[in-house]
Amino acid sequence: MFVDVHAHLIHPSFAGEEDAVAVRAKQAGVTRVIVNGLEPRSNRAVLELCRRHENLLPALGIYPVDAVAHLIDRAAWPHPWPPPEPFDPDQEIDFIASVASELVAIGECGLDAYWVTDHMPEQERVLRRLVEVALAADKPLILHTRKAEERTFAILQEMGVTRADFHCFGGKLKLALQIAEAGYYLSIPPVVVRAESFQKMVQKLPLERLLTETDCPYMGPDRERNEPAKVPLGVARMAELRHLDVDTMAAHLAANFEALFRVPAA
Ligand SMILES: [Zn+2]
To answer: Hey, which bits of the chain come out as E strands?
Structure first.
């Protein structure tokens, strides 16, 4: 049995295939997939999709780039992809709070100083409000921390968060060890088969702080579209790195999943 704590099944690259992807995951032994929302449209679609599949669990949040969409100067947007659609983050946070009892976690949320470097105070304000929602509902957080790993960690500590997963952590190994020491989890995507930074994390972090994710459609074991059914490929590599057999590695990951999310892994 395998788990994926961070998947984006509501994504243009899965359009019309969401249900097939959920079934393929199950056939591959991926018994739990946490589908993460990013903004109003995907948050609602995540809830709907998860109602149709018992192996899919919803997490709703506001991605840090979307969190500042209402402040972005669209004419000055520097990236080749279009700027995110503006919406009122406070209204969306209220919506997330209103359905929090249905969720397995709050996320994706966090801070991003890679794609957007302006408006960090607004990113932090939205993150703090989502942390409050998580604490009030007694739910863990699933965090994006790109180029803002230390700051996100500091906010969690300051606000008394005890349950969180750092997804696709890209910071220094030393910081990852501190995050694990603080009781938080770090989830490893299948790109671990070819990415040395994730291999190091798997070797050095405590076994009881590791989880698995896909971040699909990104972070796959190959250059193809990633999906939850590919989690076992990453776990096989993780098992090798820890000198364990795959079943033992998977059992540790399932136990970690249950400890953080407080739902059965199968
Ligand atoms: Zn993500």
So the answer is: 2-7, 30-36, 56-60, 105-110, 141-144, 164-167, 185-188, 210-212
